[in-house]
Amino acid sequence: MVAASYKAATESAALVEKDWSGLIKLTGGDRVSWLQGMVTNDVAKLKPGTGCYAAHLTPQGKIVATMQILLDEDALWLSLERSATSALIAAFDKLLIMEEVQVTNVSDHFTVLGLLGPKASESLTSWLGEPVNLDKPYSHRTLENGRIVKSDLGYDIWIPRAQADNVVQSIVQTGATAIDHGTWDVVRTEAGIPVYGVDIDESTTMPELGEAGINYDKGCYIGQEVVAKVKYIGHVNRRFVGLVVTGSDIPQRKSPIRKGGREVGYVTTGLLSPHVGKPIALGFVSRGAYAPGNEVEVGEQTARIVDLPFKKED
User: Fold this and answer.
1) Of 11, 31, 223, 224, which is least packed with CB atoms within 10 Å of its CB?
2) pTM beyond cutoff 0.90
């Protein structure tokens, strides 16, 4: 069953209910200018129907939440892990003073479906009855009472909760295979996509993940000084990496990563990769231990550090 689901997700089209997704809506006349000072990417340059990846940070540069930001004519939408919504809204509430901005948690209003695989666009076109016309990452269009978003792995479809079962059945009838969270997790891990609350948390900084979601030219935002210092003056102390394990045991979350007997990091996600044909892991390693091809120890096994996403030849 798992093999069939993975095959659909990587060779055809697969549909998953992303019940771990949260949605926040920002309205009010100051929403764009206010959010511009709250996140790491450039919201002011967005046009309706476009979006970007970004994060809200503490003044110390630690991640409160990572998110997709989508601009509408009359609202901003933030798509993020549901586990991070309460902390983000609480942080926003403290930072709203006189601005005309309303922050609303609309997570319970919608079901978010993820449609992925090389035939996802074909399946979505068949369900819509017209071309999708969403090519750029985080571009989006409205549905009746919902939305379609071009996501990192395919498309996200937001629909009112009451319509979820009927929509799932309709999309499956176009040839998509319904899959579970576990299969989606394999695909996102192979793609090297970190999940808040699993791979990253309030101890993580954005530069440790790379430069995605950071605009260094946009001007001030909370935590900007820390992020800029890392790029222009200093360096990160650890890096988010992929690991290919030489043995057969799957690394457990929080397992120490060692080099020469010295602890240099830890595992955040571990699983058996059908794509690589071996156990793989995501995790953090220290700057001194990081280099693609370096060998480290995870438990009693050795593992090789690789760049993300994972490749078949890894």
Assistant:
1) 11
2) yes
